[in-house]
Amino acid sequence: MIKYTELHKTNRHNLLEVLPLQKPFTVLIEPSGLCNFRCVQCFQSLKEKSYFSETKANMPLERFRRVLDQLASWSGPKIKVLKLTIYGEPLVSPDFPEMARLAVASGVAERVEMTTNGSLLKPAISEQLVAAGLDYIRVSIYGATQEKHEAVTGSRTHLEAIRDNLAALQEIKRRMSSEHPFVSCKTLDTFSADNEVFLDLFKPVADEVYLDKPHGWIRVKEKDFIEGYYGEDAARAKEDLLTNSTRRTACPMPFTTMAVRANGDVSPCCVDFIGGTNLGNVDQRSLQDLWHSEEWYQFQKMHLESRMRENPSCARCDIYRSNHYTKDTVDGFPVEKLLRASVSEPITGAG
After folding, report:
1. Three-class SS of residue 10?
2. SS3 breakdown of the chain: % helix, strand, coil, rounded to 5?
3. Whose CA is closest to 106, among 77, 65, 61, 62?
């Protein structure tokens, strides 16, 4: 299988040549907004009441089926990737193995993947995910030692237990003669020797290990997420973020992505935990209707016209400028062409 970190290089489109899209390239569904970790660099650790704290829950299986049905009835090519993760730990949902099975069986996407912290990925769950044919599992590890792991995650879960879960998953894959799911382990670049400790620890139980770059989510008054994780090294992390950023006018996500929260709220954004970019709810309007709606058009138009400050979430976001997380640009795309979205021809091929 192709390494997870190499997927963005395969069969890519130049967005400026294929917009507007008949349907998104990427759809995210949130099986659970709940998490068993409280990582210091994540909004899950915020204590103040917010849109997210008031809405995090497990997605009912009925709603999950509804989303898949809407995607299946949407004419045109398959979406490129269906991500069964947004803001929570997917395996907190007792329905996740069934969700994974349904997602793969639906055939709505070229690949189906999830992101997990690995703590709940017990052998019984792994067997179901292998049998389901899930394509990729990304495992987020935030400490190369037990001490760091506990300090970052607020959990007493043993790092070795996570490693054992992944070792069991690889053994199950071998026993079931499956290369699926491809297991990709990542940690945030610590700019220290801890990087090598992490790589050495997880290489034997993963198909790939790599380092993610710092990012800060939507800025909030309560917390600086980068400082929360890096502490005294925060200045170095922020300098690295700045060095590896490009000043873009518009974020490409509203032109390629739909994210469905556990409560059914739909957004063009997968980092907006404060809910400022919500444009509808899947229980009231189909994903296809929302994609071709006036609300979606106006949101895209706002970005192309460099008016992101008008949105409370976009005004406090800079992750779209990161060269590590954002590989596309839509800067310069003519606003008037967006009007063709409702009658655009299907885009073929992968991106």
Report:
1. coil
2. 40, 15, 45
3. 65
Cα dist. 72→77, 192, 225, 270 in Å?
10, 46, 38, 22
DSSP 1: -
Reduce the DSSP state of residue 91 to 3 states and report it. Answer: helix
pLDDT in tens, 188-243: 999 999 999 999 999 999 999 999 988 888 999 888 999 999 999 999 999 998 88
Q: Please count the CA atoms within 13 angstroms of the CA of 5 that sit on its side-chain side.
A: 12
Query: Which segments of 133-281 does DSSP mark as H helices, in order?
Result: 146-153, 159-175, 194-202, 225-230, 234-243, 253-256
- Dihedrals φ, ψ of 4, to 5°? -60, -40
Query: Is 276 in contact with 311 (CB distance < 8 Å)?
Result: yes
Q: Is 349 strand, coil or helix?
A: coil
CB 138 within 8 A of CB 116: yes
CA angle 153, 156, 159 (to 5 degrees): 80
pTM value is: 0.93
CA distance 113 to 104: 9
Phi, psi of 26 (to 5 degrees): -125, 135
Query: What CA–CA distance (Å, rounded) separates 279 from 272?
Result: 12
DSSP code for 7: G
Q: What is the Cα–Cα distance from 14 to 16, expressed in whole angstroms?
A: 5
Cβ-based neighbour number of residue 62 at 10 Å: 8
- Report the SS3 class of residue 308: helix
Q: pLDDT tens for residues 319-333? A: 888 888 888 899 999
What's at 113, amino acid-wise?
A: E
Give residue 97's identity as a one-letter amino acid code.
P
Give CA–CA dist 79/77, Å, rounded: 6
